[in-house]
Design a protein that fits this description.
elongated; alpha+beta; 4 domains
């Protein structure tokens, strides 16, 4: 018999040793171990090696002199030798010396411990450690003495490589998961359906007179009365402007005046009482008591009730107040109190720019003209957000408090006006108006038709009459659409999961549908997705009057 020599590396695992053993074709195999070989210092690994040799029909001889390995080899029933020229022996547990008798390995030919590996193989001893060893394993004898042929096949013991097994297992599991995910995406996520439905609808004109009443809280559809809500907001605006007013800040003219009292009772004329001649005014410097006058038999005032020399001062500066003596003046008390002035003098001119009332009013009006449309849109949007229909004809804006800084009459080149605007508009209940419109269209519906669009969004609303309690009537003019209701969610639910032909048939069976088109994506999709979120429905309404 020939032998094969296998050299074991220090890093070899038991699986690597078993693979090397299975790869050899010789009947006798010498396993040459390196120093401090740890892989066979395990009884489990030694038993695995023993089992691998038996399965492969190999006679194993371990070449080593490691004291830790010898007892393990003896326990496993493996022969050992110190080198390739030494005689193999079966060590006992704890022994490191050769036994005197050979031990049979199952039914295989005996290894004579009195012979070296070279002698067992039938060759003369040589120094070459690689010399072949031959052993005759072609025939044997069983317990009954009958000769049986040994199978020439070398059955290998399969010792799993757990690292490779784990990697392969992870790859297989990962592949299965990836396949499931791809399958889910392809069949549940990617499929989309686009449905285009053409319907034949009909436009009907609407002309209604509706009453809006802020005093009611519930709809009265039979009398076309809807609740009304007045919405108000305050908007504060400011604007800077240039002053254009003029004022004469020169010295004021002074003089005296004789004041007449054409009544029969004494009258007190307070300080600051204004007497005017041709728009030029003078005010009394102090209060004075004027006695009553006597009257003629004809009732004429004798003007004997008077006080002369009452000091007065012009209400404004300027030389235009330097008036001649003897001029008549009317008072702001009554027509019965009047005066005659002395010569007025001392007035001088000094013209300065001041904030006029006209300047302040013009700035306020400029703001109003600029902001009116913005205010209308703002309050209209707020009313619409409350499910009300804004009645734009009811829009009103008025200036509340107006403040100019510096104030009117003050000397300045420019000023800033601040205005609080009161903005208001009335809104009516949209649900109530829509119900009134639908009620008026009931007689125009045919078969299974419904009011697809009441036309409120594009309605023209004109206020007709107003009352003092805030109630008013308005005319509503629009075009309503009658036909198939564009129920997107209902159509999607109706065709979900159906094939294309079935989906088209179901939709076409609906009243008023004149055409249906369905397209799928991606290319492999052949039916409508079961998930209604993946179904897009579009209605095209062919409206005729």
């Amino acid at each position: 018999m020939k032998k094969d020599t296998i050299y074991i590396d220090i890093d070899d695992e038991i699986t690597n040793i078993v693979e090397k053993l299975q790869d050899t074709k010789e009947a006798i195999v010498a396993l040459v171990l390196p120093k401090r070989c740890t892989v066979l210092q395990s009884s489990v690994n030694m038993k695995i090696l023993k089992k691998a040799g038996e399965t492969a029909k190999k006679k194993l001889v371990i070449i080593t002199h490691e004291a830790a390995i010898l007892p393990l080899a003896g326990m496993a029933g493996l022969y050992v030798a110190k080198n390739l020229q030494s005689k193999p022996y079966l060590p006992a547990q704890g022994d490191s010396e050769p036994l005197e008798v050979a031990t049979k390995l199952d039914d295989e030919p005996e290894i004579d411990p009195s012979k070296s590996l070279e002698e067992l193989s039938g060759a003369a001893p040589v120094n070459d450690e690689e010399a072949p060893i031959e052993i005759d394993t072609s025939s044997g004898e069983d317990e009954d003495g009958d000769k049986t042929k040994k199978s020439a096949k070398n059955k290998k013991l399969k010792v799993p490589n757990f690292d490779k097994f784990r990697v392969r297992l992870f790859l297989i599991v990962g592949g299965v998961i990836a396949f499931i995910v791809l399958l889910y995406v392809a069949l549940a996520v990617l499929p989309k359906a686009k449905v285009t439905i053409t319907t034949q609808n009909r436009a009907v004109p609407v002309d209604l007179i509706v009453t809006a009443d802020p005093g009611v809280t519930a709809l009265d559809a039979s009398h076309k009365i809807v609740p009304a809500t007045l919405k108000t907001i305050d908007k504060t605006e400011s604007k800077k402007f240039t002053a254009t007013g003029q004022k004469n800040n020169g010295d004021r003219a002074t003089g005296t005046m004789t004041i007449y009292n054409c009544t029969d009772n004494q009258t007190t004329v307070p300080a600051g009482t204004v007497f005017t001649n041709n728009s030029l005014s003078f005010a009394t410097n102090n209060a004075v008591d004027i006695p009553g006058s006597n009257f003629t038999s004809g009732g004429d005032c004798k003007e004997d009730g008077r006080v002369a020399g009452v000091p007065v001062t012009a209400t404004s500066g300027g030389d235009s107040y330097n008036l001649s003596a003897g001029r008549a003046y009317t008072s702001n008390i009554s027509g019965k109190i009047y005066g005659k002035g002395s010569a007025m003098g001392g007035g001088t001119n000094k013209i300065v720019t001041v904030i006029s009332q006209t300047d302040c009013d013009n700035a306020k009006n400029d703001i109003l003209n600029t902001k009116t449309d913005d205010y209308k849109n703002l309050i209209s949007a707020q009313i619409s957000s409350q499910n009300l229909i804004p009645i734009k004809d009811s829009f009103a804006v008025a200036a509340g408090s107006v403040k100019c800084t510096p104030d009117v009459g003050q000397e300045a080149s420019d000023s800033t006006v601040s205005v609080v605007f009161k903005v208001s508009m009335t809104g009516v209940d949209s649900a109530g108006v829509e119900q009134i419109v639908k009620q008026s269209l009931a007689s125009s519906l045919h078969g299974s038709q419904t009011v697809v669009d009441s036309g409120l969004k594009s309605a023209n609303i004109v206020v007709k009459d107003r009352s003092q309690n805030g109630q008013f009537t308005f005319q509503l003019l629009t075009d309503a659409v009658l036909g198939v209701k564009p129920d997107v969610a209902g159509v999607a639910k109706l065709i979900a999961g159906k094939k294309k032909g079935d989906s088209i048939s179901v939709i076409k069976s609906q009243e008023g549908v004149s055409g249906v088109k369905i397209s799928y994506s991606p290319f492999w999709v052949y039916k409508t997705p079961s998930n209604t979120k993946h179904i897009t429905v579009k209605f095209i309404n062919n409206v005729s009057k």
